[in-house]
Amino acid sequence: MTDFFINWVANIPGFAAPFALAALGLIVSEKSGVLTLGAEGYMLVGALSGVGAILLLGGYPMAALLIAAAVTSLFSLIFAVMTVTLRVNQVIASLAIIFLGQGLTSLIATRAGWLNVPIAGLGKLNVPGLSDLPVVGPILFQQDLVCYLLVPIFVGVVYVLNRTVIGLKLRAVGDGPDAADAAGVSVNLFRYGAVMAGAALVGLAGAYLSIGIAKLWVDGMSGGRGLIAIALVIFARWHPWRALAGAVLFGGIEALIPRVAAIGLQVPQYFVMMTPYLATLAVMVWASTRGRERAAFAMPQALGQPHTREERH
Amino acid sequence: MTEMQLNIGMARPQQPPAPPSMGWRIPGLLLEVRQHAPIWFQTLVLLCGMATGLGLSFLILLAAGVPADGLVVEFKSIFSNTTNIASLLTQLAPLLIVGLSAAVAFRVQFWNIGIEGQMIFGSIAATFVAINDIGPEPLRLPLMMAAAAIGGMAWIIVPALLRIRFGVNEIISTLLLNYVAVNFLLHLLYGSWRDPKSSFPNSEQYTAAERLPQLGWESLTYALPLALVLTLFCWWLFSLSRFGFYTRIVQSNPKMALAMGLPVIAVTLGAALLSGALAGIAGFTISSGVEYRLTQSFFLGYGFSGILIAFLARNNMIGAILVSILVATFFIASQSLQVFYQVPGAIVQLIQAVIVISVAGFEFFNRFRLRLAR
Questions:
Q1: In this structure, is residue B142 part of a structural domain?
Q2: For residues A181 and B23, is the Cβ–Cβ distance under 8 A?
Q3: Where do the structural domains in chain A lie, given as residue ranges?
Q4: How far apart are CA B304 and CA A95, in angstroms?
Q5: B255 to chain A nearest CA, in Å?
């Protein structure tokens, strides 16, 4: 039983990392007031460009992760132009991004012959001296580089958001674009920056799915994780650390699914596969019952509203 | 909030007042909000958006390795003989119904993205009636259709009530429920509903009484007349009835509708349920009119197509017919492109997304006017 437990907990960081990175990216993007529901599309683009980079470079998973983040950031430029410059309804633009991501990745993967090609991917990195410790060793010190970097990335993003002038302006643009504009902050510049920086993080999450976990590309491999990340952001009320906690919770559920079947418990597999989605729904209901006013306050006040100087709200 | 704004102001006290051309943009161009754009102008903008989208799609197909002349031959052949026109019209029926489903929900600002899940439950309910031979044979088809409508409604009532009661965002909840529905479908098809004859993961074949009858021209079934009747019904409901009048007020100003004492919740719930019922019926027309069994993938792609149709038709029920014909053409064309040029099926989604992006982008000109700054 302890073996089962250690094995399960040791696998949680790997399952939680995509949720955590995607949720963090969405928080960055939405703090600027741009409603970003297209995370599913970003993740697919990140996942495919990661695999593509590895196949083209012949290895170098870390470089591939960075390339994937950059490519996703460029891809999100389409979304930024639509929502920020052309002021398209952000729900419609998000849906278009999801389906554009699905169609484009499927087409490119088939054409380039990247479908179902196994890659070496990201290896585990044992911390010397510490990885052999009982219990703590396998859980904390036998992970891959992305899992180790998860907390530093969160610290960095939270620092920029909450402790720098850039973060202050970004939040101001999301809470009161008219006031920020009047104070001389370029609303459009900050929204472009936030959308692209957020997309880079979501793309990293997608690339981690393909390079770190699956170690190959399959069409539609994000499997709704982008949606779960959106729900996590609502559940965490746009608060990064709470989103990380939620990601660990969902990583725990996902890591449990293959293990329950492996120890011979008789559960209908398709019902088990429903649990992350049902759990997400439950979390959303729970988040909404706990004081809707507080949730409304935590939400960026101008979320989903395009900013036009002449327009009255 | 005020403190934050003050901080921004104080951080840069020497900042000169912002010039009239807003922040970061092409210098020399001013953006003016249009109060109103005439109909001819809106139509022109829509056509420009469609043309741009189709042009981009054409380029994407070329880049994907489909030769230009092959593409032209492909689209010509769709309209060249009656068999192909019949398959286009067969494809049209479910697309039109999902388009109506999306438009009905969007009319009350209910973003139903879960059309595929509702189609699945519609078809599951219809197949349940078929497998268990419920009701006498002459009544079997109407019963299956009613079951499909109820199945679709059952799958949308949860997100509808969650939104009305708890304010849970229906975009996410309906999308999440799609994944639940797919898993439930697989549970049935790999479990108790697996075809006993072939042991393939499909349901057993529907009997003759459980299939939509042929119209007598080519392979067309009653699915198309059914879709057209539903279109007329939706048009009447939203353009002429009192219910439609309420939905227009709810759509334009929900707060005012509440203040006037209109049954806002009932109107929203009613439209959402109708949307689910239509999606369920769309699933039924595919299962009972085309595939004659419940399969694993009959619903794929219809969710986004429904949204696209409603979006391009501006939630207009009659306009949905025209857009559905266009989308049905993509579906048919992509089927043969897949066979002849090994283009993946997702190309339909890609083309639809490109068209949505172009049309939505062009709408900018409906709402704003660009002026040269002097």
A1: yes
A2: yes
A3: 2-116+145-298
A4: 8
A5: 15
Mutation choice for A interface testing from B12, B179, B302 by most A CBs within 10 A:
B179
Residue B165 to residues A230, A289, B117, B161, B260, Cα–Cα distance (Å): 20, 10, 22, 6, 21
Burial degree of B79 (CB within 10 A; 0-12, 13-18, 19+): exposed
Contacts of B162 in chain A (CB under 8 A): 281, 284-285
Spell out the alpha helix ranges (H) of A127-268.
136-140, 145-163, 165-175, 177-182, 187-207, 225-235, 240-262
Q: Which of A138-152, A168-182, B222-236 has the lowest mean pLDDT?
A: A138-152
B61 in contact with chain A, both atoms CB, cutoff 8 A: no
A277 with B351: Cβ contact below 8 A:
no
Residue B78 lies in a domain: no
Q: How large is the ipTM?
A: 0.87
Distance from the first to the final alpha carbon of chain A: 59
Could you tell me the residue range of the domain that residue B157 belongs to? 93-320
Tell me how many domains chain B contains.
1
Fold category of A2-116+145-298 in CATH: ABC transporter involved in vitamin B12 uptake, BtuC (1.10.3470)
Interchain proximity A274–B179, CB inside 8 Å: yes
Domain assignment present for B37: no
pLDDT of B292-314, one tens digit each? 999 998 998 898 899 989 988 98
Q: Show the DSSP H helices in B17-66 as ranges.
A: 39-63
Rounded to two decimals, the pTM is: 0.86
Residue B272 counted as domain residue: yes
Give the tens place of pLDDT for each residue, A127-158.
777 777 777 777 777 788 888 899 999 999 99
Q: Length of chain A, please?
A: 313
The answer to whether residue B48 neighbours chain A at the CB level (below 8 Å) is no
Q: Cα(B24)–Cα(B98) distance, rounded to whole angstroms?
A: 41
Cα separation, A277 vs A273, whole angstroms: 8
Q: Tell me the C-alpha to C-alpha distance, in Å, between residue A198 and each of A31, A59, A77, A141, B154.
A: 10, 26, 11, 28, 37
Q: How far apart are CA B97 and CA B226, in angstroms?
A: 9
| Neighbouring C-beta atoms of residue A237, cutoff 10 Å | 18
**Is B34 in contact with B328 (CB distance < 8 Å)?**
no
